[in-house]
Design brief:
There is one protein chain. The chain is mainly alpha-helical and 188 residues long. The protein has a single domain, classed as ATPase, nucleotide binding domain (Nucleotidyltransferase, domain 5, 2-Layer Sandwich). 40% of the residues lie in helices and 10% in strands. Strands 1-2 form a two-stranded antiparallel ribbon. The chain has a two-stranded parallel ribbon with strand order 3-6. It starts with a helix and ends in a 21-residue tail after the last strand.
Length: 188
């Protein structure tokens, strides 16, 4: 799915809520949302998507998950690190590794942003993710250390710098960009 469709839906929903509630955009002091956490988008340094959004139910990385389970680590160790009892192919870690083989230009992304992170970026121009849900859902996060897990990053072929900063619950990701509420806004 083109990332612009997610962005357009978020804007349309925001505009509809503001219109129905008769609240001025200037009165907005915070936005919270929920989305498909496993859906992710690789972007370049200009904020442009390098590939369609990988939706959470996409199973094209099943081979990567199978290979990883057999050759790299056990389910028990992965459970210790990530909290997952199984090694599901829908996790971003396996899809990012899939990009390395099938779409190397997209794999060299400036940032890999899960859908909530992408919307945060489009709203604020900042890259950040939350510790409690989104980062943990990626399959790249270590629950023991509370940070991106170096071995999993290496296996997926990405660096810590390609991922958003992990923010604690309630932390302000950034201020809304002035152009967010302008009609027709399209770029970060």
């Amino acid at each position: 799915m083109p990332p612009e469709e997610h962005w357009r839906a978020a804007l349309e929903g925001t505009h509809a809520v503001l219109k129905q509630s008769r609240v001025s955009p200037l009165a907005v002091i915070g936005i919270g949302f929920s989305s498909q956490g496993q859906t992710f988008i690789p972007i370049n340094s200009a904020g442009r998507p390098l590939y369609n959004a990988f939706v959470w139910v996409d199973n094209r990385a099943q081979g990567n998950a199978n290979d990883w389970e057999v050759s790299w680590r056990s389910c028990e160790r992965f459970h210790q690190i990530s909290g997952y009892l199984q090694i599901p192919a829908v996790l971003a870690v396996f899809k990012v590794a899939w990009l390395a083989r099938h779409a190397p230009d997209a794999h060299r992304a400036w940032r890999y942003l899960l859908l909530p992170d992408y919307l945060i970026y489009r709203l604020t121009g900042k890259t950040g993710t939350d510790y409690y849900i989104t980062a943990r859902m990626s399959g790249l996060f270590d629950l023991e250390t509370g940070d991106w897990e170096p071995h999993l990053l290496g296996w997926a072929g990405v660096t810590r710098e390609q991922l958003p900063v992990v923010l604690s619950r309630g932390f302000i990701a950034g201020k809304l960009l002035p152009v967010v509420f302008e009609k027709g806004h399209r770029s970060p």
